[in-house]
Specification:
Blueprint: H1 3-29, H2 35-67, H3 72-100, H4 107-139, H5 142-157, H6 163-175, H7 193-198, H8 202-216
Length: about 220
């Protein structure tokens, strides 16, 4: 396996985790807030996606720039997106800490940070798979490829479990749907989905009313 193939394999498992994150965000909109899932998602990001995977990519970035100086431009772009995802991870971690301390308003930040993180990664990965990695395969000689592969095996060997198992764990967790929460007493379940959402957070209903007033004005 080449260094690029190792990273592309990581990407496949990261996308499985992102699909689980998207489903968990939809669950929040339905009124199902799983703190345990988002805690595990944050750990996956910290240890795997933005941790071991980025460490491996940093080794490749350095190797490619040593062989081809013009690669500094693409590397700068990709590295900027790495910093962006780390920022969303930090926001997610702060929001989860706030929830643990009793601040349920922080669920808005959990959803926002998760959505932004997922969006950045979904834009980021194709740039590497279709652009940077093929370039790396062309410019890196065999002995440097072998050195990168050895480094990657060392990094992977220190993980608590494989990328595949960690991502599958998130997928399995999000598929365990809780029993649907009942509508608040005295309020029948609305037929429209957007109205059902307001059952779980009155602030959204107020916001929608205000938007309606603006539209009528």
């Amino acid at each position: 396996m080449t260094a690029s193939a190792n990273l592309i394999d990581n990407h496949r498992h990261i996308l499985v985790a992102l699909d689980a994150a998207d489903e968990a965000v939809r669950d929040v909109a339905r009124g199902h807030r799983s703190l345990a899932f988002f805690e595990n998602l944050r750990e996956f990001i910290d240890v795997y996606a933005d941790g071991a995977h980025y460490e491996k990519e940093d080794h490749m970035f350095a190797a490619v720039m040593a062989q081809a100086a013009p690669a500094a431009g693409p590397v700068a772009c990709l590295d900027m997106e790495h910093h962006a995802t780390r920022g969303q991870h930090d926001r997610l971690a702060a929001a989860l800490e706030a929830i643990r301390k009793g601040n349920n308003d922080a669920w808005f930040d959990v959803v926002d940070a998760t959505t932004r993180y997922v969006t950045i990664i979904r834009i980021h990965l194709p740039k590497e798979n279709a652009g940077f990695f093929p370039m790396a395969d062309m410019v890196l000689p065999a002995h440097i490829q072998a050195d990168l592969v050895a480094r990657y095996e060392e990094i992977d060997g220190k993980l608590p479990m494989s990328f595949a198992d960690a991502a599958a764990g998130l997928q399995q967790q999000v598929r365990k749907k809780p029993v649907a929460a009942p509508a608040p007493a005295g309020r029948p379940m609305p037929s429209r989905f957007v109205d059902r959402f307001t059952l779980y957070d009155d602030r959204l209903g107020v916001a929608l009313d205000l938007l309606g007033d603006v539209g009528r004005g």
